[in-house]
Design goal:
One of its GO terms (biological process) is carbohydrate metabolic process. With 811 residues, this protein is of the alpha+beta class. It contains 19 helices and 41 strands. A hairpin with a 4-residue loop joins strand 4 and strand 5.
Length: 811
């Protein structure tokens, strides 16, 4: 069952009913100001940091679901409704929500009154613009009262939701004309404020939530809207809001447009609190004047559309497969940009109040956006590396505003260091910018501790190389990629546990997955060493990688598949010897990606085992059989019910690893089938089962053991986005950035057909025509560049050349 459809020409997903299984959301913003908006106008806004600079309030797990946002109430002869239907819930005569690239548009009507609401964040401004047009389609005049409504958060979203004894006394506002200023906490050092304004005179306003809604009333039918009159209330403590009242008369066929704006401003550092009702409004005035007419607002909207068109044009494919073209050209890349902005911090599943930016997460996300915004990828690498410790380990998370490591979570996730090498190698391949390796980067964000970025990579490599267990495999620490596999959380007495320590003392749980990462990214570190004149380090890396490769063969192979790990007592995890959790997906994918066991004939066996034991119609499960009871020696993974999350759920994040691994072996049909099963465009028809947005990847789909097999959760902010784009663009379509240029090496189903790809790479445009005979899955018979055949499948880089025309014959 579908609840909408793709409009590929407009690059939009069109939702045709407000009654979707879950709120289907979009992200507005591309730099510092961000908003989340659902298909019924729910959501929230913040500046840079969803925890520390939250502008509007949102209530998670609320009933009704998703019932706070930026709302517009229309009172038309006593009938109260909203353009997005919520929060009044009044059924409209028509409804449509179009989620586009950085904007959402709502079109609805009731009793011959038509409403069109466009919401977007301009490319270079700290505000959200809402253009609302009302049109009278009847043959008589209509007298309409229009009300706006936003509820302000008192900045720190955690404190806002907990510290009521203080916060119910600090709310402060100012009202000047049609602009309502939210200046709560302006007295303090922050000097920031927000405002909500409209480009028209208002009859009345409210800034007190209780006055606007009415005592004991919800936000579905506010008292002010019922009586068609705001009370000009000025909030003092309690719950500050911004609400405008505009009374208008529309002649038959007449329409009027209003531009509403929610903005964020900071005053200069010398601006102190001088007296009550004194803030410098010059920044707000300048911002308002940029967009205070419909013409100015629509010019900004056109600029936003051009921004996204230009950005996503850096990679574009034309084939006979609409699903591939749609995801590659629009939605997969768009989601990669959202994960760049948000990491795992702010969604409808992540409140934005805890996790911040992830070290591992952001490194992996970079793989999906480095081709789009290489200059910002460079900045992100420096930010990530700055949270590393001198021994090579790192904070697992950091706050986007302060760039400081998250003390609550700390460190000890032993896969983190190697992801930094993965990110930097991807950046170098994309840009050729070796100067980044000389950039001074601190440890733990401490001034005076700066060393070249290259030294951070060296620390990352050697952290793993020197933290090995009894099987010569890497110590897992608190966890590796699978945060719920906590193999050092054993105890001899209830309530006692052990923390990760050094290589020679304490728990010694080992990870085959990190071993595979070490082989994969150790090769990249060796190559970086060779290209930067560190020959001795390159030899050391080559030797350490060879030793790790052998350690996996010796201690990590279980006969038909790769082991997952050894727990703290050296018991096998992910083995045929286990009663539950016999086989895991992660080592099968990453070991084969690293080509471990390829020559020995083990790689094919491992992937065959994946298809035999883990594959379902909705994707590949993370493990089997599911854990049916809690295992203290395994930790959180066994705390989930069977089929959910890490306990045998379909973790979409690592399904691409299996697809890439199949491409390594040249098995195009199998590689594409794995891609297809979790691809949103392919599974749009089962939106009633899947439930999350049909245009975006989710983190998890309930596995075969679950009560709701096939139901997805945790959409948008997932490493699935980046890894799927790497899989699609590099492993399947075969456009692979290398240190010395683009290589072309597709792996596709036998009957896929030919395709054309346009790729922006190192300031040049590449036009690649891939010709694929039926029956061929992988292999390049010959390649021509600008009409001349070349040896191999890598396009030579020619300094200054701006355009390449490439023909590839598979065979």
């Amino acid at each position: 069952m579908k609840f909408g459809h793709f409009d590929d020409k407009a690059k939009e997903y069109v939702i045709t009913t407000p009654h979707t299984p879950q709120p289907w959301i979009n992200y507005l913003g591309s730099n510092d100001f961000f908003s989340l908006i659902s298909n019924t106008c729910g959501g929230y806004s913040f500046y840079k940091d969803a925890k520390l600079l939250r502008i509007t309030r949102y209530r998670y797990n609320n009933i009704p679901v998703d019932s706070n946002g930026k709302y517009y109430y229309i009172n038309d002869d006593g009938v109260i409704w909203n353009p997005g239907t919520m929060p009044s819930g009044t059924e409209t005569d028509t409804y449509e929500c179009r989620h586009g690239l950085g904007y959402s548009r709502f079109h609805s009507s009731k009793n011959n009154l038509e409403a069109d609401l466009l919401a977007f964040v301009p490319v270079d401004a700290a505000c959200e613009i809402n253009c609302l047009t009302l049109k009278n389609n009847s043959d008589v005049a209509k007298n309409v009262s229009l009300f706006s409504y936003v509820e302000f958060c008192l900045w720190n979203a955690v404190d806002d939701s907990t510290n009521f004894q203080r916060n119910l006394s600090i709310g402060e506002v100012e009202v000047h004309g049609s602009t309502i200023y939210h200046k709560t906490e302006y007295r303090e050092r922050r000097r920031h404020y927000s405002f909500f304004t409209v480009n028209a005179p208002v009859q009345n306003f409210d800034t007190s939530r209780d006055e606007f809604l009415g005592a004991g009333n919800g936000n579905a039918f506010p008292e002010a809207v019922r009586r068609k009159k705001c009370s000009n209330s000025i909030a003092s403590g309690w719950y500050p809001i911004a609400a405008h009242q505009i009374d208008l008369t529309l002649a038959p066929g007449e329409e009027k447009t209003f531009v509403f704006m929610l903005g964020y401003c900071e005053n200069p550092a010398d601006n102190k609190w001088e007296a009550p009702n004194v803030i410098r409004k010059a920044p707000a005035k300048a911002l308002i004047e940029r967009f205070d007419t419909a013409e100015k607002a629509m010019a900004a909207f056109a600029e936003l559309k051009t921004y996204w068109e230009t950005l996503l044009a850096r990679f574009a494919v034309t084939s006979s497969n609409e699903h591939v073209d749609r995801m590659a050209n629009i939605w997969n890349q768009y989601q990669c940009m959202v994960t760049f902005n948000m990491s795992r911090s702010a969604s409808y599943y992540e409140s934005g109040t805890g996790r911040g930016m992830g070290f591992r997460d952001s490194c992996q996300d970079l793989l999906g956006f480095v081709h789009l915004i290489p200059e910002r990828a460079r900045e992100r690498i420096i930010d990530i590396a700055s949270t590393q410790f001198p021994d090579g380990s790192a904070y697992h998370q950091y706050q986007p505003l302060t760039k400081q490591g998250n003390l609550d979570v700390g460190s000890g996730f032993n896969d983190d260091p190697l992801w930094l090498i993965a990110a930097v190698s991807a950046y170098l391949k994309e840009t050729g910018d070796y100067g980044i390796l000389d950039e001074p980067v601190p440890f733990d964000c401490k001034k005076g501790s700066e060393v070249p970025l290259f030294e951070h990579l060296n620390k990352s490599f050697h952290y793993t190389a020197t933290h090995l267990g009894p099987h010569k495999l890497p110590l897992i620490g608190r966890a590796d990629w699978n945060d719920c596999l906590n193999l050092n959380c054993f105890s001899s007495e209830p309530g006692e546990s052990f923390q990760t320590t050094g290589p020679s003392e304490g728990p010694v749980a080992e990870s085959v997955f990190i071993a595979a990462m070490f082989v994969q990214y150790g090769k990249e570190f060796k190559e970086i060493c060779l290209r930067t004149g560190h020959e001795d380090l390159a030899k050391e890396a080559e030797s350490a990688v060879a030793d790790m490769y052998q350690a996996v063969l010796d201690a990590g192979w279980d006969g038909e598949w790769f082991l997952r790990a050894y727990d703290s007592q050296s018991a096998k995890v992910g083995s045929k010897e286990c009663e539950e959790g016999k086989i895991y997906i992660e080592p099968q994918g990453f070991c084969v990606m690293a080509e471990i066991g390829k020559e020995e004939g083990l790689a094919e066996k491992a992937l065959d085992s994946v298809h035999k034991h883990l594959e379902t119609k909705y994707g590949i499960m993370i493990l089997q059989p599911a854990y049916t009871r809690y295992h203290l020696e395994l930790g959180e993974i066994s705390s989930y019910p069977p089929g959910y999350k890490e306990n045998a759920g379909i973790f979409c994040h690592n399904n691409p690893w299996i697809s890439i691994a199949e491409a390594v072996l040249g098995r195009g049909d199998l590689a594409f089938d794995v891609y297809r099963k979790i691809c949103p465009s392919y599974i749009e028809e089962i939106s009633d089962v899947h439930r999350t947005e049909p245009y975006i990847y989710s983190q998890m789909v309930a596995g075969a053991d679950a009560a709701r097999f096939g139901e997805a959760k945790n959409s948008w902010l997932t490493g699935t986005a980046a890894w799927t784009f790497v899989n699609l663009s590099q492993a399947l379509l075969g456009i692979q950035p290398e240190y010395d240029g683009l290589a072309v090496n597709p792996c596709l189903p036998k009957n896929f057909g030919g395709l054309k790809i346009k790729r922006r790479y190192r300031d040049a445009e590449y036009y690649i025509d891939i010709r694929k005979p039926d029956g061929v899955e992988k292999g390049v018979a010959w390649m021509e560049v600008d009409g001349k055949k070349i040896a191999g499948n890598q396009i030579p880089l020619i300094p200054g050349k701006k355009e390449y025309h490439v023909t590839v014959q598979m065979g």
